[in-house]
């Protein structure tokens, strides 16, 4: 593997340490640990480069320092079809400010140098194809990244990424939707490593008053398909929602609400919201 | 329906991949709907009642078959080559878009959904979808970039008159690309009740193959009409290419005729050598946009680059995957035509033949003027006149300064 182009300090040390052969997915291990403690994992999303590159790094570090278990760093993209208005506005601003893909790698390196939570990158697929799937996997690994969440890549069309992630040991998080057939859920469970991203409702990102009961049914179906690591995302914004979801799922993913907090009140506001959300993620059940 | 094709046939491509192009790069939430569309379409294709209903609509509603018109006074400006227009501009709603929309609207009824959505650039596909929704009693929402709602205001009014809701899209470049993003977001959210009537041969499988199948009637009719008129196949077939549905529609019947050259004319905007164009195959490279791998205007990081064309219908940074494949195997040639060349051809056809083409179609006419000079006076060229220019009168009026000073400028 190469250390190309990465200027940050990959302080997490030997990347091979996270290879499945040498201990498995740190994302999966983190989720399992939170479950065994009687709660579940809190996963926080923020886009790289919003409002600036350095503030986005500071905000991500603040999430980890305030109880977020796994970071999901979004790479801004011109055509984000899964994203609602809040994240669209943030990523468009990052692009207007000159976001480049290498900033994503730099941000991962800078964050993993400061905190030791796993860092996943959420990205639409074309930027990775243009960067080079293998090159991106190598650079992400060298920066200390844990893997990719791919909202517009389905297992059916993912041969390049499966090969690169097998080679590097990076996690592959595919999505599962309420509309997915049982066969497709099984395929998502088998293709994913780290966790399966269960889409709570039919729709796009953005806070919602109620998280659909469809999420609970979907998690049940994913369990039946063999999943031991299934996290729910889309529409989750409050500690109460986190607590409710972690009653049945392994992790809860919060995005737009954190982006809105960062937009409205900067790093202090995002840190405060992370603290509240993390309180919702603990001591839901007796520790096992 | 068409006879079985052997696997050597270039016409046998059914997706999801055309060579290395195509696929389904979409959120998982949409896969069930795409699977349903794929299987329902496969059943519909086998169903004689579906074919009969579509054929009857083509005959009694659209006005098919559309005629061909030979244009000798225009051809005199193209080195004397024989030029024949396929008159898709005479279809109900004014362009080829209705061919595809009626097919997909029938499919919507068959699947049992009650709401349709569509994206539109110039407004032609939106008008066709609003028309079919009115005819079949479906709810209809059309997404259109804010830039396009301004430059094609008449089509916005037409859609609303037909009962559709028109949503002006204010994100990104505020053109067709962003209208598609917004329509996809709607579809992800409302897929249970809603069918997405996609307007071109791009997007995820099954759209490229399905839309082509609904448009290939253009070439099937024209091939026979040209044979009847001239006793032989044309030397070349030309069409404008944005997403590429009218071009695939006329090319398809000729794919296995190796002596018939195929030319697609892309929007060269202010010049393919500038940054302001929509010449996707000429200047782009393979990438993924709107669910398919195809040629794409993008920067080094894979961010989509904004396109530019005077024609809203060609102002798109992507192109259908089958065109990328035809370009890659050398079966079709794609060349840029500038705004100025297209507008000049638009005026020339109007003055010499009394036919006002859409600005989109004028790109094909401009390319054909050049091609005719190259092929010489013995050549016959079939041009897909994909739409009429009524919707473009405001743009043309401004461009040629016709609005204030009136006819004396002519």
UniProtKB/TrEMBL annotation, chain A:
Listed NCBIfam families: trpA (TIGR00262)
Catalytic activity as recorded in UniProt: (1S,2R)-1-C-(indol-3-yl)glycerol 3-phosphate + L-serine = D-glyceraldehyde 3-phosphate + L-tryptophan + H2O
Its job: The alpha subunit is responsible for the aldol cleavage of indoleglycerol phosphate to indole and glyceraldehyde 3-phosphate.
Protein name (record): Tryptophan synthase alpha chain
Assembly mode: Tetramer of two alpha and two beta chains.
Lineage: Bacteria, Bacillati, Actinomycetota, Actinomycetes, Micrococcales
The enzyme's E.C. designation: 4.2.1.20
Family listed: Belongs to the TrpA family.
GO CC list: cytosol
Pathway entry: Amino-acid biosynthesis; L-tryptophan biosynthesis; L-tryptophan from chorismate: step 5/5
PANTHER family tied to this protein: TRYPTOPHAN SYNTHASE ALPHA CHAIN, CHLOROPLASTIC, TRYPTOPHAN SYNTHASE, ALPHA CHAIN
TrEMBL record, chain B:
Reactions accelerated catalytically: (1S,2R)-1-C-(indol-3-yl)glycerol 3-phosphate + L-serine = D-glyceraldehyde 3-phosphate + L-tryptophan + H2O
Family: Belongs to the TrpB family.
The keyword Amino-acid biosynthesis appears for this protein: yes
Residue intervals of the Tryptophan synthase beta chain-like PALP domain: 64-387
NCBIfam families: trpB
Keyword Hydrolase: no
Cofactor: pyridoxal 5'-phosphate
Keywords, sorted A to Z: Amino-acid biosynthesis, Aromatic amino acid biosynthesis, Lyase, Pyridoxal phosphate, Tryptophan biosynthesis
Pfam families per UniProt: PALP (PF00291)
EC number: 4.2.1.20
Gene3D superfamilies in the cross-refs: 3.40.50.1100
Organism: Cryobacterium shii
CDD domains per the UniProt record, alphabetical: Trp-synth_B
GO cellular component: cytoplasm
Superkingdom: Bacteria
Protein name: Tryptophan synthase beta chain
GO molecular function: tryptophan synthase activity
Pathway stated in the Swiss-Prot or TrEMBL entry: Amino-acid biosynthesis; L-tryptophan biosynthesis; L-tryptophan from chorismate: step 5/5
Subunit text: Tetramer of two alpha and two beta chains.
General function of this protein: The beta subunit is responsible for the synthesis of L-tryptophan from indole and L-serine.
Lineage: Bacteria, Bacillati, Actinomycetota, Actinomycetes, Micrococcales
PTM annotation (N6-(pyridoxal phosphate)lysine): residues: 97
């Amino acid at each position: 593997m190469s250390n190309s182009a990465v200027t940050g300090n990959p302080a997490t040390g030997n990347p091979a340490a996270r290879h499945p052969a040498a201990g498995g997915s740190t994302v999966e291990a983190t989720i399992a640990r939170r479950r065994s403690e009687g709660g579940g994992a809190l996963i926080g999303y923020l886009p790289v480069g919003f409002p600036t590159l350095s503030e986005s790094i500071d905000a991500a570090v603040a999430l980890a320092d305030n109880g977020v278990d796994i970071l999901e760093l979004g790479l801004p993209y011109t055509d984000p079809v899964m994203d609602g208005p809040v994240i669209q506005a943030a990523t468009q601003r990052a692009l207007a400010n000159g976001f480049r893909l290498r900033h994503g790698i730099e941000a991962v390196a800078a964050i993993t140098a400061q905190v030791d939570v796993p860092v996943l990158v959420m990205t639409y697929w074309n930027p990775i194809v243009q960067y080079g799937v293998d090159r991106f996997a190598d650079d992400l690994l060298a920066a200390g990244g844990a893997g990719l969440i791919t909202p517009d890549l389905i297992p059916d069309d993912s041969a390049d990424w499966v090969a690169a992630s097998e080679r590097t040991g990076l996690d592959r998080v595919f999505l599962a939707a309420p509309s997915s057939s049982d066969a497709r859920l099984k395929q998502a469970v088998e293709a994913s490593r780290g966790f399966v991203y269960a889409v709570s409702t039919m729709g796009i990102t953005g806070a919602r008053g109620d998280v659909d009961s469809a999420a609970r049914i979907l998690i049940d179906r994913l369990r039946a398909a063999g999943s031991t690591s299934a996290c729910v995302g889309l529409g989750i914004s409050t500690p109460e929602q986190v607590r409710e979801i972690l009653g049945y799922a392994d992790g809860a993913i919060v995005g737009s609400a954190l982006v809105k907090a960062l937009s409205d009140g900067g790093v202090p506001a995002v840190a405060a919201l992370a603290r509240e959300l993390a309180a919702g993620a603990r001591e839901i059940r007796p520790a096992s | 329906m068409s006879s079985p094709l052997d696997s050597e046939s270039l016409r046998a491509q059914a997706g999801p991949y055309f060579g290395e192009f195509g696929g389904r790069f979409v959120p998982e939430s949409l896969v069930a709907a795409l699977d349903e569309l794929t299987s329902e379409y496969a059943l519909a294709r086998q169903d004689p009642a579906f074919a009969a209903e579509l054929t009857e609509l083509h005959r009694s509603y659209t006005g098919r078959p559309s005629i061909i018109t030979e244009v000798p006074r225009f051809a005199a400006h193209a080195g004397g080559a024989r030029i024949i227009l396929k008159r898709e501009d005479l279809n109900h709603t004014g362009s080829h878009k209705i061919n595809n929309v009626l097919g997909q609207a029938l499919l919507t009824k068959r699947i049992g959904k009650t709401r349709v959505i569509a994206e539109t650039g110039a407004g032609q596909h939106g008008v066709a979808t609003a028309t079919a929704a009115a005819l079949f009693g479906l709810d209809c929402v059309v997404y259109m970039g804010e830039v396009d709602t301004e430059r094609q205001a008449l089509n916005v009014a037409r859609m609303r008159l037909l009962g559709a809701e028109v949503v002006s899209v204010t994100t990104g470049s505020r053109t067709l690309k962003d209208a598609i993003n917004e329509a996809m977001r709607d579809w992800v959210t409302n897929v249970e009740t809603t069918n997405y009537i996609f307007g071109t041969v791009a997007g995820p499988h099954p759209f490229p193959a399905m839309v082509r199948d609904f448009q290939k009637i253009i070439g099937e009719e024209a091939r026979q009409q040209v044979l009847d008129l001239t006793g032989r196949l044309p030397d070349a077939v030309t069409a404008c290419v944005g997403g590429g549905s009218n071009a695939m529609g006329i090319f398809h019947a000729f794919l296995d005729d190796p002596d018939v050259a195929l030319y697609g004319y892309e929007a060269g905007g202010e010049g393919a050598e500038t940054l302001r164009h929509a010449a996707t195959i000429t200047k782009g490279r393979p990438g993924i946009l709107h669910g398919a791998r195809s040629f794409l205007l993008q920067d080094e990081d894979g961010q989509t680059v904004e396109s530019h064309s005077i024609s809203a219908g060609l102002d798109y940074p992507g192109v259908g995957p089958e065109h990328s494949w035809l370009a890659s195997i050398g079966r079709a040639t794609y060349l840029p035509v500038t705004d100025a060349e297209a507008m000049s051809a638009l005026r020339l056809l109007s003055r010499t033949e009394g036919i006002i083409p859409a600005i989109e179609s004028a790109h094909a006419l401009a390319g054909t003027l050049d091609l005719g000079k190259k092929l010489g006076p013995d050549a016959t060229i079939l041009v897909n006149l994909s739409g009429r220019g009524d919707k473009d009168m405001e743009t043309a009026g401004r461009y040629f300064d016709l609005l204030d000073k009136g006819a004396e400028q002519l």
